[in-house]
Automatic annotation (TrEMBL), chains A, B:
NCBIfam families: EthD family reductase. The keyword Iron does not apply. Residues 51-121 form the EthD domain. This is EthD family reductase. One of its GO terms (molecular function) is oxidoreductase activity.
Amino acid sequence: MKVKVILTFLLLTTCFAVFSQEKHNTAVVEKGLIKVSVMYPYAEGKTFNVEYYETKHMPMVAGFLGSNLVKYTIEKGVASGIPNQPLPFMAIGTFYVKSLSDYQAAIGPNRDAIRADFPNYTNVTPVILVSEVVK
Amino acid sequence: MKVKVILTFLLLTTCFAVFSQEKHNTAVVEKGLIKVSVMYPYAEGKTFNVEYYETKHMPMVAGFLGSNLVKYTIEKGVASGIPNQPLPFMAIGTFYVKSLSDYQAAIGPNRDAIRADFPNYTNVTPVILVSEVVK
């Protein structure tokens, strides 16, 4: 009886651990993915509400992308890495997608809704970089 | 005897799976880390050798950072995400570190060596953004 309980416990733990591990593996492999980075330049008088961006804007856009979206990240600009130079960007939001054409097809019909949300968190026009993850 | 063998096998599998999972966890948790992004702007006549950057320059800089470095990434600019706008950056190299002051302390004494390597892969001066991973 005791042995059966131990066996069952170990089996469940193994399954759980292996399952969790697999989830992490898929999150780690980024090489070859396409990054779409939406970069908000800093300038005098420009503002950016990170909280709104994180809780409302990015989840909305992510929702348009479906299974093409592998993950998305948000970073908040802190400083320029070069002394006496201004902060280059206040914030950057990045979508890691498998296919650029699928990304464009998903964003196209929703572009107006996305742009209409800009004034809710910023008064600056973003720069967008499409790049490929090399490493 | 058979039960003991099964028990031992399951125990080893569990330990291995849990151990592997922990390794992946540390690679995935980025929130709160500091990103130092070295961004190479695109302009007419500017060049960038991704292969040299990936195989020589970035490993050299990474070597200066020690255990403060969690990971580093390289991306190659492909296009602007906005029609009729020029490519914003040819490439971006990013260091994910635990401490900005430790990063600065490690880079300081090696700044000349790092800059002396620039002409080996590019003729443009990078912009550097220090940011905090929000999500």
